[in-house]
Design a protein that fits this description.
Blueprint: H1 2-15, H2 18-36, H3 42-49, H4 58-83, H5 92-103, H6 107-140, H7 145-162, H8 167-180, E1 184-185, E2 192-193, H9 207-227, H10 245-267, H11 274-287, H12 300-315, H13 317-323, H14 329-340, H15 349-352, H16 354-375, H17 379-385, H18 390-409, H19 412-430, H20 436-458, H21 465-468, H22 470-492
Antiparallel strand pairs: 1-2
Helix pairs in contact: 1-16, 2-4, 2-16, 3-4, 3-9, 3-14, 4-5, 4-6, 4-12, 4-14, 4-16, 5-6, 5-12, 6-10, 6-12, 6-13, 6-16, 7-8, 7-20, 7-22, 8-20, 9-18, 9-19, 10-11, 10-12, 11-12, 14-20, 18-19
Length: 495
């Protein structure tokens, strides 16, 4: 425990360096603005900025990306409450009561409980991350190749199942990513795979170019095609932002309950913020002394989901930093950011990059304070951001995405790949196929292949090593159940 607090203290020394503090401030500011803009999420923004920040100091860049990530969670409440347009699926639960409060002239207290709840949940969740991460690292250091491969199979399956509207579509996206991950030179045999005589493909498909294409270009094309003509009604920000004593009394229990609902969901490979936000909403509705207000603007229905959303976002960093397993779209892009700097998240990260990882964790504490300062007093400014014309927004995204992708290697091949993936991302969005599993497949696929081959090499070709090792067998058994049980329920539950 003392070692953990000592490492955290050294992390604060890193996070509070003037340049890192500046990058953190830029990150949370950009993240808040991104969260406010409808249709522009943290995954899109981080993907778009990845190529433009390739030559920055890794610590500063990753602190900025983390700031964008949880800053967007803060800022998303503004759009959700005032415009009734959730930027991400995790904000849908907030919209149920938040926009109703705004229509009743109580937009101020709704925004206040969302901001303060996000601060409380984010801070508590960061404390839990600080305490839990070393324990997970100690366990992960005991993993061999077989255990790592089984863990990745489990992560593939659960993420594909959770991040899509159906397991089939999620798995289709995942296998697409795994296929793209095979492009390039085989690390063991030296043979070229699926390069089709293009020299630029021998190093594989750049995860940054793929992520920018799928998220930024694909999302911009989709928004321009399908959402630009949708009517919008912006609720006025009238009255005081101050919460009444009754608002405080009803909000703080919801903040605490939601924190301990959201954080565990973020830490497991089947994470994501959608489930805990709706679960928090259901809990608050069940426990509320004012159930009649639900559907008409109950403040608990805003406080709970927003706190759960932020706690889950922080929880996502546990498997990302300790195991190298992303459990959300943004986490997948953050993993790509680490790899872009030649850093592989996992248990060894805490030994090889001590200053970076603890500086990143410490920056979360600092960022939460900065976000509270930015959100409440400056809410009027963030509302004005909503007035940006949509065509300018989409055009800007495409320009930045193109410049960023080209700046990586100054190659026209990257631009072709960018827009091929952009069109693919548009099609996937159009037919409701999740994009995140494809990116996760591209990033983790080669790692899973390496661990698979290494396990077989150690066991001299005996495939039973995956079921004779207790941890590996447990992961594979749970994975099989996750696939088979829902299928059986669908097949026989209708009879």
């Amino acid at each position: 425990m003392l070692e953990t607090f000592g490492a955290l203290a050294s992390g604060f020394a890193v996070a509070l360096k003037p340049m890192n503090l500046l990058w953190g401030f830029i990150g949370v500011t950009v993240g808040t603005a991104v969260g406010v803009l409808p249709g522009v999420g943290p995954a899109l923004t981080v993907a778009m900025l990845l190529p433009l920040t390739a030559h920055l100091d890794p610590t500063g860049a990753l602190i900025m990306f983390a700031g964008i990530y949880y800053g967007a969670m803060f800022g998303g409440s503004t759009t959700t409450i005032l415009l009734n347009t959730p930027g991400e699926s995790a904000s849908i639960a907030t919209a149920l009561e938040g926009n109703r409060m705004a229509k009743r002239g109580r937009a101020g207290p709704a925004l206040a409980t969302a901001a303060i709840g996000s601060f409380v949940a984010g801070t508590i969740a960061t404390v839990l991350l600080t305490l839990l991460a070393p324990l997970v690292v100690a366990l992960a250091l005991k993993f061999g190749p077989a255990e790592y491969f089984a863990l990745m199979v489990f992560a593939f399956t659960t993420v594909a199942a959770v991040l899509g509207s159906s397991t089939t579509r999620g798995l289709a996206s995942l296998f697409l990513g795994l296929l793209f991950g095979l492009v390039g030179i085989d690390g063991q045999t030296g043979a070229a795979r699926f390069a089709f005589g293009v020299p630029e493909l021998l190093d594989g498909i750049d995860v940054v170019v793929m992520a920018v294409g799928l998220f930024a270009v694909g999302e911009a094309l989709y928004m321009a095609a399908y959402t630009s003509r949708l009517p919008e009604t912006l609720e006025k920000l009238s009255g005081s932002l101050m919460m009444s004593k009754d608002d405080w009394r009803r909000s703080w229990p919801a903040w605490l309950r939601a924190t301990f609902i959201g954080f565990p969901f973020g830490t497991i490979p089947a994470g994501g913020a959608e489930i805990p936000t709706f679960l928090s909403y259901a809990v608050e509705k069940k426990l509320s002394k004012h159930p009649e207000e639900f559907g008409n603007g109950a403040i608990e229905g805003v406080a709970g989901p927003e706190a759960a959303n932020n706690a889950s976002a922080t929880g996502v960093l546990v498997p990302l930093l300790t195991l190298g397993i992303p459990t959300s779209a943004t986490a997948a892009i953050l993993l790509g950011a680490f790899q872009n700097y030649g850093i592989q998240p996992g248990p060894l990260l805490f030994q090889s990059q001590t200053n970076l990882v603890w500086g990143l964790i410490a920056s979360l504490y600092v960022g939460n304070v900065l976000l509270l300062i930015l959100n409440l007093p400056l809410v009027g400014m963030w509302v004005k951001v909503l007035a940006i014309p949509r065509p300018m927004l989409y055009g800007g995204i495409l320009v930045f995405a193109t410049l960023g992708a080209y700046s990586l290697h100054q190659s026209w091949v990257d631009l072709v790949i960018l827009y091929v993936f952009g069109l693919l991302g548009f099609a996937m969005k159009r037919w409701d196929i999740p994009v995140a599993p494809a990116v996760i497949g591209l990033i983790l696929g080669p790692l899973a292949e390496t661990q698979f081959r290494r396990a077989l090499s150690i066991s001299q070709g005996d495939a039973s090593v995956f079921v004779t090792q207790p941890i590996s067998a447990a992961f594979l058994a749970v994975t099989a159940l996750l696939v088979i049980v829902p299928w059986l329920v669908r097949r026989y539950g209708r009879r």
